[in-house]
Design brief:
- The protein is an alpha/beta fold.
- Helices cover 25% and strands 18% of the residues.
- It has four helices and four strands, in the order βββααααβ.
Length: 147
């Protein structure tokens, strides 16, 4: 697990079980640990939500958060351009298959192409969260607490 990312599982009466991976913001950087992905096609698929919406969800009302998030995790994975999706190791890997891209069946060893090591680790974390059905979030603004 990457430091500065928090798994949160909500049980909402309307939405059921909602699984989140939330970047814990820093005073100087709202994207926290996910900051290296900002401005990339991967970062474009991370939902930026108002702090108030996450606060409501943490207190039992997930509807505003779910409206802010929009699409399902697997739909974010499909929006990554083709050349940035496929693991560059797929032709030499023992586990290689047609599933070596962000998908519900992506293997744990998935690595994205063309990124720095730090970005690659973050993208792999995001892709595996999507595989679990987790919404990956950056929180914009105050009014929530992860303590």
């Amino acid at each position: 697990m990457v430091e500065g990312l928090r798994h949160i599982d909500l049980d909402d009466p309307e939405w059921g079980k909602v699984k989140l991976l939330v970047a814990v913001p820093r005073p100087e950087e709202s994207w926290g640990s996910l900051a290296p992905l900002r401005g990339t096609s991967w970062g474009d698929q991370i939902a930026v939500v108002p702090g108030e919406d996450l606060s409501h969800a943490l207190h039992g009302w997930a509807t505003p958060l779910m409206r802010s998030i929009g699409i399902k995790p697997e739909d974010h994975a499909r929006k990554i351009p083709g050349g940035e999706r496929w693991c560059p190791q797929r032709n030499d890997c023992l586990l290689s298959s047609e599933k070596c891209h962000p998908s519900p069946d992506v293997p744990d060893c998935y690595e994205p192409p063309g990124l720095t090591m730090q970005q690659s680790l973050l993208v792999t974390t995001v892709v595996l969260a999507w595989r679990e059905g987790r919404y990956v979030l950056v929180v914009d603004g105050p009014e929530f607490s992860l303590s």
